[in-house]
Write a structure and sequence with these properties.
GO terms for molecular function: L-serine ammonia-lyase activity; threonine deaminase activity. With 484 residues, this protein is of the alpha/beta class. It is 40% helix and 20% strand.
Length: 484
């Protein structure tokens, strides 16, 4: 691979040439530099995702895909959520994590593979993925006997990587992010004549994802709104086209996080814009540039609104789905329920709303971190410092006080060396678990009454602001939710 550098010396350019195991610097002339740029663009060119010739997705093709993949992917349940009464609306959860690979991606992959020519099926396919698309590619190519290579970023979740390998595909780790993995995968596809399948922008993939929209209307005929996670856009594009065709008055909303907002930015500027994505709880949405075909179809106004939800709310969404629904989902799936919990949809109170839970492939270590983050955000995990007597019984008195309050002690670290004043005092750094904010406030009041020196950091920051939190940007020309 060749990357142009920014430094220019008269008619000469610095470039970095990637030889796989090493990167060397070289100086080339302007003509050579232009040739390298053309080569680089040629590698990235995908005839099915051509910016000069975007594909219009039609409902008839989605319907055909629905019939084509019937029996080979799961028609997932869409059941009423236990959280409905608490959140003030009839919420139905479309459980795409029930697919064999734990993700909705199977629909688009299966549809695309079935449409390949017999010759191409023998040569094989290739794709780049952060995990879920790769899982679906691995599983369905193995089922159909098609050779497959999946290129994943080096930071891809371990769970998804190991599952991908267990399904039978050849996996390659390359690049720090999806953009680098994609470029490498496309260069291999040109070299080995493999069919490159864009996991979020290939027309046949979008058509396959749209089959979820058909199922939603069948399962919840009176649905008022559908909330869909948005990464590259294939899921929301397919669902929106199907929903608006079958029931035009149903509102369709796309949800992204504060770190994965490429589609929001694209629709706001009316052009595809690259963003920088670091670590995110919603790794399935970590696409730094909206798809050619998805953007082309969405900018026509089939979406009622795009919303950005903060990642702390996503953590809480995962936690509540585990506790109240007994569903284990990944961050990218929880953004839909998180946006409701954050109060971003006051216009949907009392209405029937379908939240698409797009996948359930989350690392156990990540899940553990998320659950603790969610508990802290809701005041159920509290840390504080308190200075107690270092004489016999001083620490026991504190523990007894916590026990009488019904508070669970999670961690307790004594600090003696840096305590100022009384040498017979010890500062305790304490982490406790409570039942929620009311219980936490009771704890704070009693600790402050009992001990002169105590500190509860971040209490103001972590309090639940509930409904009224900052709303996401509205991109519709005449948003339904703002009509009086």
């Amino acid at each position: 691979m060749v990357f142009p550098a920014s430094e220019v010396l008269d008619a000469w350019y610095w470039i970095a040439i990637d030889f796989g195991d090493s990167v060397d610097m070289a100086i080339v002339t302007t003509d050579a530099y232009i040739s390298i740029l053309l080569w680089y663009e040629d590698v990235e060119f995908d005839e099915f995702c051509d910016p000069d010739n975007p594909r219009k997705i039609k409902y008839d093709d989605i319907l055909a895909a629905s019939r084509r993949i019937a029996g080979t992917v799961v028609k997932t349940p869409c059941t009423r959520a236990h959280m409905s009464d608490k959140l003030g609306m009839e919420i139905y959860l479309k459980q795409e994590f029930m697919q064999y690979t734990g993700c909705f991606k199977e629909r688009g992959v299966r549809n695309t593979l079935l449409l390949l020519s017999e010759e191409q099926k023998k040569i094989g396919v290739i794709s780049a993925s952060t995990g879920n698309h790769g899982l679906s590619m691995s599983y369905h190519t193995t089922q159909l006997g098609i050779p497959c290579i999946v290129v994943m970023p080096v930071r891809a979740p371990i769970t998804k990587l190991t599952k991908c390998q267990s399904f039978g595909a050849k996996t390659l780790l390359h690049g720090e992010n999806m953009a680098e993995s994609k470029h490498y995968a496309m260069s291999l596809s040109k070299e080995k004549k493999l069919y490159y399948i864009n996991g979020y922008d290939h027309p046949n993939v979008i058509e396959g994802q749209g089959t979820i929209g058909i199922e939603i209307i069948e399962q919840v005929p009176e649905v008022d709104a559908v909330l869909v996670p948005v990464g590259g856009g294939s899921l929301v594009t397919g669902i929106a086209i199907a929903i608006k065709h079958l029931k035009p008055d149903t509102e369709v909303y796309g949800i992204q996080t504060e770190k994965t907002y490429s589609m929001v930015e694209a629709l706001k500027r009316n052009e595809r814009v690259k963003i920088t994505i670091d670590s995110t709880i919603a790794d399935g949405l970590a696409v730094n540039l909206a798809g050619v075909n998805t953007f082309h179809n969405l900018k026509g106004g089939i979406l009622d609104k795009m919303v950005i939800v903060k990642e702390d709310w996503v953590a809480r969404g995962i936690m509540h789905l585990v506790e109240e629904e007994r569903y284990v989902v990944e961050g990218s799936a929880a953004v839909t329920i998180a946006s409701i919990m954050a109060g971003l949809f006051p216009n949907l109170k009392g209405k029937k709303v379908v939240c698409v839970l797009s996948g359930g492939n989350i690392d156990t270590t990540t899940l553990a971190r998320v659950l603790e983050r969610g508990m802290a955000a809701e005041g159920r995990l509290v840390k504080f410092k308190v200075t107690v007597s270092d004489r016999p019984g001083g620490m026991a008195e504190l523990c007894g006080l916590l026990a009488n309050l019904g508070v669970t002690l999670r961690d307790c670290i004594p600090e003696r060396a840096w305590v100022k004043g009384d040498v017979f005092s010890v500062e305790m750094k304490v982490i406790v678990e409570t039942r929620g904010w009311d219980h936490t406030k009771e704890l704070v009041e009693i600790i402050k009454r009992k001990y002169k020196e105590c500190v509860f950091p971040e209490m103001n920051e972590k309090q639940d602001k509930g409904p009224g939190a900052k709303r996401g940007p509205c991109l519709a020309p005449n948003p339904v939710c703002m009509q009086k």
